[in-house]
């Protein structure tokens, strides 16, 4: 569509119980948001309300590794800092469903991998919306019911990729933090570092390549984009490749009146949000 979606989550359960998060200090309650999309796909998000609030929102997005409970220490960190946290995970991960779809050409397929989503591409549907739409629809709900002083977004790995894309197309995100989430395609190894379906989709990147997406996320009123790379990341996007585009991007963003930075974490050798990053 030519505009961002304006509708709201399909279902909201207030004040739910989830034992995985029951012992977080300063946590008042949790609301569960369910976003329903085409072909039976859904997305489950948790909204963590702090007992003592600074009236600021952090959107936290987990990567390919599973549900956002894997980022519990990060969620707890922000709640202890008095933030409200809205947590997501990627399609087909965690509590999000894995629908079986009867395709007219390929038969019944149970979708468990992002790379299978290519079968759903058509002239009037792109599976890429399954990644972006849950956050945008949830922000519609936020705007209707809350008045936060700021709305920022942080994501690791595939969640970092999602953070860039959402921030590039939705200016309601003010400060976005990509952590080990993407490199421009020309810096990637042809075989081992290409990424999943969404990372290399030509239909998207012929419209806006990665450098352009980084610029979009960095510009606009009161907006800033921070890229955080782990020097010795065993998974992806480690090393020094960012140096190829860092100066160019900073100069371009400065000329456009935006804010952009790169931060390197040398404190860990894990694919994680370290204490240094927090």
What this model shows, in words?
The model has no long low-confidence stretch (mean pLDDT 94). Helix content is 22%, strand content 24%. It has helices spanning 72-80, 129-145, 158-169, 202-205, 210-218, 246-255; strands at residues 11-13, 27-36, 42-50, 56-61, 84-88, 100-103, 107-110, 150-156, 175-179, 224-230, 260-265. It has 278 residues and is α/β, with parallel strands linked by helices. Helix 3 (158-169) crosses helix 5 (210-218). The protein starts with 10 loop residues before the first strand and ends in a 13-residue tail after the last strand. It contains six helices and eleven strands. The longest helix is centred in the middle third of the chain and has 17 residues, at 129-145. It is globular, with a radius of gyration of 18 Å. Strands 1-2-3-5-4-8-9-10-11 form a nine-stranded mixed beta sheet, sandwiched between helices.
In short:
With 278 residues, this protein is an alpha/beta fold. Helix content is 22%, strand content 24%.
Number of helices: 6
Mean pLDDT: 94
Q: Which structural class do you get from the secondary structure elements?
A: alpha/beta
What is the strand arrangement across the widest sheet? 1-2-3-5-4-8-9-10-11
Contiguous uncertain segments of 5+ residues: none
Q: Summarize the main sheet.
A: 9 strands, mixed
- Principal-axes geometry comes out as globular
Portion of residues within helices: 10-25%
Which series of helices and strands comes N to C? Answer: EEEEHEEEHEHEHHEHE
């Amino acid at each position: 569509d030519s505009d961002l979606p304006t509708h709201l989550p399909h279902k909201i359960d207030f004040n739910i119980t989830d034992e995985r998060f029951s012992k977080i200090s300063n946590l008042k309650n949790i609301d569960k948001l369910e976003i329903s999309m085409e072909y039976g796909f859904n997305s489950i998000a948790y909204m963590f309300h702090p007992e003592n609030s600074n009236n600021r929102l952090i959107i936290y997005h987990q990567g390919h590794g599973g549900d956002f409970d894997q980022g519990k220490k990060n969620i707890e960190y922000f709640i202890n800092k008095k933030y409200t946290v809205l947590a997501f995970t990627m399609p087909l991960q965690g509590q999000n469903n894995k629908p079986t779809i009867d395709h007219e050409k390929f038969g019944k397929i149970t979708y468990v991998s992002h790379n299978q989503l290519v079968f759903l591409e058509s002239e009037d549907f792109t599976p890429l919306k399954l990644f972006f739409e849950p956050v945008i629809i949830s922000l519609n709900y936020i705007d209707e019911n809350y008045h936060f002083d700021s709305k920022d977004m942080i994501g690791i790995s595939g969640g970092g990729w999602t953070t860039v894309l959402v921030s590039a197309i939705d200016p309601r995100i003010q400060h976005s933090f990509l952590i080990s989430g993407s490199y421009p395609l020309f810096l990637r190894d042809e075989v081992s570092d290409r990424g999943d379906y969404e990372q290399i989709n030509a239909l998207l990147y012929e419209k806006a390549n990665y450098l352009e997406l980084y610029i979009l996320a960095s510009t606009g009123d009161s907006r800033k984009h921070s890229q955080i790379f782990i020097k010795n990341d065993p998974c992806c996007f480690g090393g020094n490749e960012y140096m190829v585009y860092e100066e160019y991007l900073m100069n371009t963003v400065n000329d456009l009146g935006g804010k952009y930075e790169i931060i390197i974490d040398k404190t860990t050798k894990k694919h994680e949000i370290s204490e240094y990053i927090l």
